Amino acid sequence: MSALLDHLPEFWQGLVVTLQMTAASFAGAAVVGLVIVAMRVGPVPVLRAVATVYVETLQNLPLLVLLVLAVFGLPEIGLKAGLTTTAIVVIALYEGAYIAEALRSGVNAISAGQGEAARALGLTFGQSLRHVVLPQALRTVVQPIGNIFIALTMNTSLAAAVGVVELTAAANRVNLLEAQPIPIFVGAGLAYAAIAACAGFVTGRLERRLAVAR
Amino acid sequence: MIRVRGLNKWFGDHHVLHDVDLDVARGEVVVVIGPSGSGKSTLCRCLNRLEAADSGEVLVDGVPVPAEGRALARLRADVGMVFQNFNLFQHKTVLENVMLAPMKVRGVSRAEAERTAHELLARVGIAEQAGKQPARLSGGQQQRAAIARALAMRPKVMLFDEPTSALDPEMVGEVLDVMTGLAADGMTMVVVTHEMGFARRAADRVVFMDGGRIVETGEPNAFFDSPRTDRARDFLAKVLTH
Ligand SMILES: Nc1ncnc2c1ncn2[C@@H]1O[C@H](COP(=O)(O)OP(=O)(O)O)[C@@H](O)[C@H]1O
Ligand SMILES: [Mg+2]
Prior knowledge:
Bound molecules: adenosine-5'-diphosphate, magnesium ion
CATH class of chain B: Alpha Beta
Helix content of chain B: 40-55%
CATH topology of chain A: MetI-like fold
Radius of gyration of chain B: 18 Å
Structural class of chain A: mainly alpha
Distance between the termini of chain A: 53 Å
Oligomer: heterodimer
Strand order of the largest sheet of chain B: 6-7-8-3-9-10
Distance between the termini of chain B: 35 Å
CATH superfamily of chain B: P-loop containing nucleotide triphosphate hydrolases
CATH topology of chain B: Rossmann fold
CATH architecture of chain A: Orthogonal Bundle
Order of helices and strands of chain B: EEEHEEHEHHHEHEHEEHH
Radius of gyration of chain A: 20 Å
């Protein structure tokens, strides 16, 4: 127990990095997901194909491989960015594919008549997506997106493997000094569980607030 | 107002519209009737290009309907459409349903859109439903809201695809009354319907479709009392005996 308490500042620092990475990469993933789903359900065949390939590719590669590739490969081709920034971008691109798929299932759950009615009124495809289809699609996928958020939080720990000192890496460092893995990693695990619990609470509330009468 | 020439449409190898020609004059009310599967909805949906025809042309107010993009959206803004299943936006109130397109497409201010929406809801007789979600309304009220939503764009033409077919019988009248009122006010209308009473009362012309072709067209009383083709006679015999 004292192993945890003696190193609270390190844990705290790691937790802050984890939270920053989670927030930033989730925001990025949301943007990526929206763009990809718009391409995927849109009328332009080329964009649809690009979006499909994007989703299929990223869903079939391990995140760790992508992280290692980006951290060690990008400098080779002259692209240099901070470790944490690189990890955030990679996680955003990766989780964006999952968000796009969740949104697409939401779009498919909305009757085609909604988009047709919007377009028949003169809304462009983008406007009908933005004002009519996506707001309804989002309501049906609050829970899956909450689950993606939780998975994304856990996935930030993979950044430890490429040298980002987030919560898991911080716990690992403390353990190298104290050699008390059980309290140290249980402590870190509880912090992740707390984040997941918050996410679950928020999605539950959101789902009830956004429920639409049908 | 609408001019259709040589329209053909296939779904796969199913030839759904055969060389359809149709003219609708300004202020004219054309009722399209025919057996199920004869291509009435497809024709209607080709007029605002919700369905793209394979050949032929559609002109609205002298302008060929654009293939896609903003130009197509602009044309659709001038062509109102009312669907069998209402298709009201489920996540918005009735009032917001009516306000959305004028604000987003025409750039009308919120205050003006709201004023117009209240006027139109009063005109179709559901002023007191403005703040409700569509699912809380009866079918007849939902369809009247959908008509108000289309009218809010001040369309040059209104298309109706079986607007009363999804309604309980006691609600058919309230929707047909609104449509009759529109026709009397001089709106150009294309109406796909099985309501022969409405066709007699409100139509300037009846178009009878069968097997993807326009088989017969004529002034309503002449058409109903003495159809010229066997197919129209058979169809009328079936629907009018029920
Ligand atoms: N999206 C579609 N895909 C394939 N076939 C269709 C589609 N829409 C309509 N059809 C077919 O086209 C024919 C005409 O349909 P429709 O225009 O809906 O007829 P109506 O409105 O007169 O009942 C029918 O045989 C129908 O099955
Ligand atoms: Mg039909």
